[in-house]
Amino acid sequence: MERSRRSFLKLVGISTLGLGTLSAVDLLDKVDLRAQGFGPDPKALQGERWALVVDVEKLDEETTRKAIEACHLVHNVPHYEDYEEEIKWIWTDTYEHAFPGQEYDYLAEEVEERPFLLLCNHCSNPPCCRVCPTQATWQREDGVVMMDQHRCIGCRYCMAACPFGARSFNWKDPRTTYFKDKEPPNPRYPTRTKGVVEKCNLCAERLAEGSMPACVEAVKDTKAIVFGDLEDPHSEVRELLHEHFAIRRKPELGTSPNVYYIV
Amino acid sequence: MYNKGTIITGLVIFVVLFTSPFVLGLVTSGPPPEPELTAKAKQAKQCVEVKEFMVESHMQLLDDWRNEAVREGKRTYVATDGKPYTVSLQNTCMECHSNKSKFCDQCHNYAGVDPYCWQCHIAPKEKS
User: Fold this and answer.
1) How far is A138 from chain B, CA to nearest CA, in Å?
2) What is the pTM of this model?
């Protein structure tokens, strides 16, 4: 059999090309979903800059506990005793720790001892999103600083970047530790897995179906936490801020937090 | 051809060794398991899309669902036939296919794939 090197190479080249094209066409064909498309739920809450206004006076111990519990139940947040493994979505701390730089020697005892309800500030200029190498955390158009647990690689850059300590790392798999002997309380929401960072998501899954965030809902009758759109001049949050003086955590850092505290 | 015997023997040994995992697999694994449908799934007659599409491309569909819901906030899927569905593996898919072990796992085990959905998403409780 006589075949020159040249004609052999040509033949090989053409067959490879042909096979390659075939499989590429095949692949494209499969990706086609044929569906009519995706859209938001018509009931979903729409906003441009979601914010929370916390009225500290109205948040007594019982109300605070209720808000925290509601959040943790809805999102299957585990509770670890060890401080280093703690998972925080919404928690309390003292005035001194929450508002450093704004404390002074003769602070009213009542303020000094009061636990302040803290959570992710859903900053307008979120440093956590800037440092995320995989865009697992990003700011949505409505201002929610979202987490995509599917993409998180657990590098914890965001935890270093967040000046509010609003992010926690899963050192353990919650399913084999905290939820080992008990069911996660909300079977409609996932847990997290080992090696991802988690935080408050402003109840994005509830906003999508037209409900308020769980903490707001839990203390609704006291109006201690109010949720609304800061860009809407007639929203409840804007009215509250218009009528009361409010402070934010570490505003000097320029992250522009969207959680306000009426003190 | 020089060393005909050695080369051909070598080639035969190579082909046998190379294909042995496939042959072994064919012999030992038996026929692929059929996913079992729950009464609820049977009653619905059709999944979000036609059966052939779901069998072939459910992973692609789920991937798109995940991206649209989490990243784009679009949590309603309008199927080819115009019917809307809530985009949720845990709440929509598993509502009908509440028999994860018979519907998902046995095929995945057979095919040797290990999707990590269930490390976070909670599977419905099955009556054992």
Assistant:
1) 9
2) 0.83
